[in-house]
Structure formats: structure tokens, C-alpha cells
Design goal:
Elements: H1 3-22, H2 25-35, H3 49-55, H4 63-80, H5 88-106, H6 134-149, H7 156-186, H8 190-193, E1 200-204, E2 211-217, E3 221-228, E4 238-242, H9 254-264, E5 268-273, E6 276-286, E7 297-302, H10 323-334
Antiparallel strand pairs: 1-2, 2-3, 3-4, 5-6, 6-7
Helix pairs in contact: 1-2, 1-5, 1-6, 1-7, 2-5, 3-9, 4-5, 6-7
């Protein structure tokens, strides 16, 4: 999830675990604890972009990291907050739970989380929440602000903690229900039924869990479509994207292509973008694809000029989002 979500989620969990003993300090320590796994961003300062893609949500998002780091920081907190009447065991639980929640909630996104690193490179991805979803985060934000301004010892602190954690958790459950509903609907589609075994997925479009992006693999390409939970039509309209794997002829691209193939889980195409060969990762969606499937993909890696790939995931995420396209987006969410 995005940074703000981890901060406010951690603050609310911190209040629930140690608010009575630490007061508002529990919010701050909780925000830091829940954000800790994202320390892997420092790898981007020295790793090539392609390798940084796998480093992100890698070891620092694993059970091994949680088990290794939690007791060490718990020991440090026991000394820093020795007058706060919080035992080592409580601190261990505090940090272990915060890191575990971070790992778990990240698994709901499309990026994939390396829970089993360094023993397995398998990435866990439930594809049920977009990386930034206001309907998940807003309740935690309201609760965190309320807890900051509410005096210690007030009964209302418990209410706000339960409010933030309760409604956000309910929203996750609703998003899971939406995914099950969408998957059940698209499994009736011919292009999904004829997809290569197990090679299709659905994932939310930006900032919501009501409009879904669907990709089904065939032998020579991918069928891509969009479906809203409010659609009344039985059939989904798909468009086709050829794989074009034959364009990967030069040995110069092999190293980056191998890493990107692993990162994309095989859901990728090769294309020419402005006369430059690019590797498109389909898992992150298209640029306004529900309105114009010819806009290209959000994630594209420049194979010929790898040094030009900074902010690679973000650069197409909200390209072209003007008032007209936002209106089209909202109308598509409402269904057809």
C-alpha cells in the first residue's frame, strides 16, 4: 500500500496495543513500525532499475525479516521507553504485529510481496486492492487525526481506534467479495475459458475496487478487458495485445529481459514506443485503457536505454487524467 496508508494504519494499531501506556507516543512509534519494511527504498540508490524492481517488497517484506528484526527493535524500545511500563514481550508483539500487518496488507496489491525470501522468490499477490485506495485509507486517516487531538485516558480513544481499524477491515472484506464476484463473471467468458491454463487475472483499476482490469493469456497474446461490479451486461468487451516476443532478438537485452520476465510473472508484451523497444508489464494496467486501449501500458521499461527508466512504475499511472477522463472513469465504474 501507499506510504500514508501504512502510517495511519500503524498509528491505529499502535494505539490499540500500547495506547494506555504510551499515550500519543504509541501513534508515532506505530506509524514508524508499520512503515519499516519499506526501508527497501534505499536499494534504489545503488541498484540498476531492473534489479531494484525485485528488491522492492523483497527481503524486508518477508517473514524472515520480521522474525529477525522484531526482537532486536523490541530490545531497543525496552531501553528507550524503560519508564513506560511496557515489557519486552509486549514490545516484541508490537513490532512483530506491525511488520506482519504491513506484509499482509501489501499482499492484496498487484505488485507482489516476497513473504518467503530469501528461501523462495515466489511473490504473493491477491489482486484485491489498488496500491492507493481512498475508501480503505480515509477511515484510518480520520481515526488517526481524532486520536492525535483526543486527550489520553478518554473513552473516545477506544471508539476511534475501533472505527479506523474496523471500517478499513470491512472494506478489505468487501473488496475480496467484489473480486470473487468479478472472477465468477469473467470465468464464463470465452477468452478466459480458452486462456492458457491458470493464465488469467483480475485486479482493481486505480483508486477503487469496483472497476476491474482483466487479462487472459492466449498462445500469441493477451485479451484485455474491463468489468464493473455494477455492469448489467453478461459479456465483457476484450481487446487484443500481441506478445511480440520475436522482437527480443538482441543479446544486449537478455539480462534485463530475464529479470523483467520474472517480475511480470510472464504477463508482458514487447512493442516499439516512439521507435524505442520497450518491455510492457501488463500486471499494472493500461493508461486510461477503459476509455482508449491504444494508450499503452502504465509500466513500460525502455530496453535500449535502461538509464532512462527512473520512476518506472509511476510514470504512466495517472497520465492523461483530466476532468473529461475522470468523468469517463466514474461513468465506467457505474456500469454498462
Amino acid at each position: 500500500m501507499d506510504t500514508l496508508t501504512h502510517i495511519v494504519l500503524g498509528a491505529c494499531i499502535g494505539e490499540a496495543i500500547a495506547g494506555k501506556e504510551l499515550g500519543r507516543k504509541a501513534l508515532v512509534v506505530g506509524a514508524i513500525a508499520n512503515s519499516l519494511p519499506d526501508i527497501d527504498f534505499v536499494a534504489s540508490f545503488w541498484l540498476p532499475v531492473s534489479r531494484d524492481l525485485l528488491a522492492h517488497r523483497g527481503f524486508t517484506h518477508s517473514f524472515a525479516f520480521m522474525l529477525l528484526v522484531s526482537p532486536l527493535i523490541a530490545m531497543l524500545c525496552s531501553r528507550l521507553f524503560k519508564n513506560e511500563n511496557v515489557s519486552f514481550a509486549r514490545w516484541y508483539f508490537f513490532w512483530g504485529l506491525q511488520i506482519s500487518v504491513h506484509l499482509f496488507i501489501d499482499c492484496f496489491n498487484a505488485y507482489g510481496t516476497g513473504l518467503f525470501e530469501p528461501f523462495s522468490h515466489y511473490r504473493v499477490s491477491f489482486n484485491t486492492l489498488y496500491v492507493a485506495d481512498p475508501l480503505y485509507t480515509i477511515w484510518l486517516c480520520i481515526a488517526a487525526v481524532a486520536l492525535l487531538i483526543t486527550g489520553s485516558g478518554k473513552r473516545t480513544r477506544k471508539f476511534w481506534t475501533m472505527f479506523g481499524l474496523g471500517i478499513s477491515t470491512l472494506y478489505v472484506l468487501i473488496s475480496v467479495f467484489f473480486k470473487l464476484y468479478i472472477d465468477q463473471a469473467i470465468q464464463k467468458e470465452e477468452v478466459v475459458q480458452h486462456a492458457r491454463p491458470g493464465r488469467y487475472f483480475s485486479t482493481p483499476t486505480p483508486l477503487n475496487s469496483m472497476l476491474w482490469y482483466i487479462v487472459a493469456e492466449s498462445d500469441s497474446g493477451f485479451n484485455i478487458g474491463y468489468r464493473s461490479v455494477f455492469d448489467k451486461t453478461e459479456h465483457t468487451t476484450f481487446h487484443y495485445a500481441p506478445k511480440n516476443r520475436s522482437l527480443l532478438t538482441s543479446d544486449v537485452y537478455k539480462s534485463d529481459a530475464a529479470i523483467l520476465t520474472q517480475f511480470s510473472d510472464g504477463f508482458y508484451t514487447i512493442s516499439n514506443r516512439h521507435d524505442t523497444l520497450v518491455f510492457n508489464v501488463l500486471r499494472f494496467g493500461e493508461i486510461l485503457g477503459w476509455a482508449n486501449p491504444n494508450n499503452g501500458f502504465v509500466f513500460y521499461y525502455n530496453l535500449q536505454y535502461p538509464d532512462a527508466n527512473e520512476l518506472i512504475v509511476q510514470r504512466g499511472r495517472f497520465a492523461g487524467w483530466n476532468k473529461e477522463n475522470i468523468d469517463l472513469f466514474l461513468k465506467r465504474i457505474k456500469g454498462i
